[in-house]
Specification:
Blueprint (H helix, E strand, L loop, with lengths): L7 H17 L5 H11 L12 H25 L1 H21 L5 H13 L1 H14 L5 H8 L2 H18 L3 H25 L1 H10 L3
Length: about 210
């Protein structure tokens, strides 16, 4: 087993990838959320949704495409700035869709959330390179870290329906998503701050 895989930075990146893709699964429940909002109109609980579920999903895909470019450019300038952009889009998008569904901010939220979705494809591999370097055990470390988003996706597809249909409803789902965005930011920055240890172990090989 490579020595670098027994370091804190490795497991911090695993956690980041896990929660990154966990958050992304919220996107799949936008149409159900909009349907639920529409059922609340009759009771007067909400005015109604500003956008349909299909439109909201489409906007997130547009954001996803833009995010691949924006995050790729941002991490070349500064990994921390790229992470800050990622968290701002994920957190801001979640809050807009969650708290302002009857306003144009819902549309903005869909776009911002789409940018966050691009993080798992673009940002996570580049974070691994930033922390461990591109030599030594980098290919092996990357292959292990990239397994984490798969587990995050699987948990999200189990957890979020349970939350949405439970007593907490969609409020619980969005709250968990928002907390996960914070975890992604914290674990990623913590990994970067320890990159000197990670690179030394990566160059050291297996033991």
């Amino acid at each position: 087993v490579p020595a670098c895989m027994r370091t804190a930075p490795f497991w911090l990146l695993v956690a980041s990838g896990f929660f990154m893709n966990l958050v992304c699964q919220v996107n799949g429940f936008f149409p159900l959320y909009v349907d639920w909002l529409d059922t609340q109109v009759a009771s007067g609980a909400v005015v109604g949704s500003f956008a349909t579920g299909a439109v909201l999903l489409g906007l997130s895909q547009v954001g996803n495409a833009a995010g691949k470019v924006a995050l790729g450019a941002a991490i070349d300038l500064s990994p921390v700035k790229a992470l800050t952009l990622l968290a701002a889009c994920g957190g801001g998008g979640t809050l807009c869709v969650w708290l302002f569904p009857s306003t144009p901010l819902m549309v903005v939220g869909g776009l911002l959330f789409g940018i966050f979705i691009a993080g798992g494809i673009v940002l996570l591999p580049m974070l691994v390179r930033t922390v461990f370097g591109s030599s030594g055990d980098f290919p092996l470390v990357l292959s292990y870290v990239m397994v984490a988003p798969t587990f995050g996706s699987a948990l999200g597809n189990i957890l979020f329906p349970l939350l949405a249909e439970g007593s907490g409803g969609f409020n619980a789902m969005f709250a968990v998503g928002l907390a996960s965005v914070i975890i992604v930011l914290a674990t990623s920055i913590a990994a970067i701050s320890r990159k000197s240890i990670a690179r030394a172990r990566s160059l050291g090989g297996s033991s």
